[in-house]
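Troubleshooting: if your tokenizer reports a length mismatch, compare against these two reference records.
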Amino acid sequence: MSETLVDGKGTGYRASIGSDGSIRTTTPVDIYTQRLDYDGGYQPVYVGLAEPGANTGSAVWQVKKNTISNGIITEIKFASGTALFDKIWDDRESGPYS
């Protein structure tokens, strides 16, 4: 069974019940503007999501930092340790991340 749930921002999430009874949800990332900041190669170190048209200097971003080891992403941390959309993309390098 699967159904679409809506959060307070009107964002749709897909929810389904697994065979073990667990509830699984997915977020449709493609509804957000996405910014990437690379390490000088092909690996994105910083990833930002926000509503389309968001200013990079406004506190409306979700910002993540990837740890890369041997060319693969091994860890993903959130700015200020939260997945809230209240960060500033332009300040992504100032941390902290957890």
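Reference record two:
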Amino acid sequence: MSTRHSTKATARLWRCRRCGRRFANRNQSHACGRSNLEHHFRDKPKEIRELYDAFVAALRGIGRVIILPQKTRIAFQARMSFAQVTPRQKWLDGHVVLAHVAMSPHFRAVQTISPRNHVHTFRITTVSDLDSEMISWLREAYAVGEQKHLHRHRDR
């Protein structure tokens, strides 16, 4: 699972000199530090890793994804982070960022960060939770990660 940043889409991203992570915004506030995937799956059942792998496969079916293992979560980035998961003993907790508030049984809570950034919290317990509706939310979040929601708003 590569975290290389060499495509045209990420060419203009700002890179933190300390940790090397790339961001859509210059001097983006963040906690420097690198972790690895193994850290998140230590002492977890193999089914949780399989569930994570299915989640990543769903994201990669949408587009190019940068995987950023961090201390307490695993973030997924296009131009900016659009989703994250935290492996637990029996499920994956996570969230997606959407440009609007969406109501769905998939979401446990919604937190509004700004007018075009709404964090939708979910829990995935089985691969069947990655149904067509959830994939559509991941696709929408990916577009937010590409910052397409900003361009659509400017065009109006």
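Descriptive notes for reference record two:
- The chain has a mean pLDDT of 84.
- Helices lie at 37-41, 46-60, 132-145, 148-155.
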